[in-house]
Amino acid sequence: MPSLNAPHTSERHPFQRLQSQLADLIALTPAGDRLPTEPELARRMGVSRATLREAMRTFEGQGLIRRRQGVGTFVVSHNHVIESGLEVLQSIESLAAKIGLEVTLGTLQVMRLSANQDQAAILSVPEGTPLLEVSRVIQAEDRPVAYLIDLLPEEFLTLDDLQDGFTGSVIDFLLRRGSPPLVNSLTEIHAVAASSEIARALEIQRGDVLLMFTARLFSGEGQVVDYSYSYFLPGYFRFHVVRRVG
Amino acid sequence: MPSLNAPHTSERHPFQRLQSQLADLIALTPAGDRLPTEPELARRMGVSRATLREAMRTFEGQGLIRRRQGVGTFVVSHNHVIESGLEVLQSIESLAAKIGLEVTLGTLQVMRLSANQDQAAILSVPEGTPLLEVSRVIQAEDRPVAYLIDLLPEEFLTLDDLQDGFTGSVIDFLLRRGSPPLVNSLTEIHAVAASSEIARALEIQRGDVLLMFTARLFSGEGQVVDYSYSYFLPGYFRFHVVRRVG
DNA sequence: AAAAGTCATGTTGTCAGACAATTGACATTT
DNA sequence: AAATGTCAATTGTCTGACAACATGACTTTT
């Protein structure tokens, strides 16, 4: 029997659902407005105040809310920062759209392969596990601007899945399907010189400067669903992050 | 009455002290090791378990620890490169200290200047406002690894301030003095090729790849206190960020 | 009338203790 | 040897309470 309220069906871990509900509430609350009081929110979300406060702490750490003792909890201005900031994982397609960049999918390449030692370690799967590698070039203004490679076990994505309405973004596909449930991504930020292969794909010179992200995408159980490395041409993307003073 | 244990004298908010203590403990705990149990930690830190768990949640959000029900809380791997979650703003010096890396101050250069149009716009001050520019080179293992430039109005930092125990880090100085109150920083992430000037300072070749941050540091009133641009040699730093699935 | 002080109220911050859920190790049975 | 049961340890959550703080209304003083 399918649930009526589809948005949050990852009922496996109540804390995640709570976080998701709170995220929605914060997103829907105008900047500067006060959230309901903690006892009220706890009652409404069906959790204790202690649990609610732990969840709230995660949003405070992201600079999304500000709590003032004796006054209340307020949503901070999330106009530019959150939209295009790194705090939220979004597919490159929607990210690019947010900065007003018309993007098209360049070459798309899908390959089945068997996990070598490094890949097995990164994805926490046994060596030899069948994997799917999806690599694609993103174009803007008739020019390649990003090169993205996703690597994930066939358990999560098969060649057959890609037959039907696959736009190129693995993340968007997984999110649309709803399983496995995605929670967060640990992204590392690097600056690299373009290798020959990357240079050819992006139509630049070998050794040119690129911004590179490597990301592990985690499911609810802490399982690695997807490992991706992304190369970005400087100038076409602006990534920023709000860092709080520790 | 001076406290005996000097390390954490920011007693203004007990929660911050707790976070600082926990950060140290996590930094000093070998990767993969288990932390003490929550009741034990709460007792040792002198707080309740609920408060402790809220603080732990912030570190979990940064990917520094992993909690497993029925088993314990573990420190996740942090290698010997300077690794930092971007969620929290810390000086390179304190970052390095946390992982036990010896860093020294290379060349330090301080210059008074008068805000030109761009600088005035960035710092939200009138054109001509007297500014202080602090640039420095960070060395690790007898090699320059980072080049950092801070630009801020003399209202917040004067030449005189730097006479007395200035370690090179503007952030650390402002934090130690406690005014103006720092809240957060909006950091942009770029990849650039080294200019001649930067290449000379970092003893690399012009055109070599560098990771670059530009950051505006905000006070409580939303005022821009400091504008900085930082160049990092790849390989010596590993910055990461936890992105939640929107 | 204006200023200062006082108090009530509402909100977040913290606490103590308890029980539930999960895991891992060990013992027991098949 | 394998499956199952038992138990202790640990994190996850809940309940209720009080402390700290901010705000506004009210009272008192000037």
Automatic annotation (TrEMBL), chains A, B:
GO biological process per UniProt: negative regulation of DNA-templated transcription
SUPFAM superfamilies tied to this protein: Chorismate lyase-like (SSF64288), Winged helix' DNA-binding domain (SSF46785)
Record bears the keyword Transcription regulation: yes
One Pfam family hit: GntR
Keyword Transcription part of the UniProt annotation: yes
GO molecular function: DNA binding; DNA-binding transcription factor activity
Signal peptide from the UniProt entry: none
Domain HTH gntR-type: 8-78
Keywords (A to Z) from UniProt: DNA-binding, Transcription, Transcription regulation
PANTHER family per UniProt: GNTR-FAMILY TRANSCRIPTIONAL REGULATOR, MANNOSYL-D-GLYCERATE TRANSPORT/METABOLISM SYSTEM REPRESSOR MNGR-RELATED
Protein name: Transcriptional regulator, GntR family
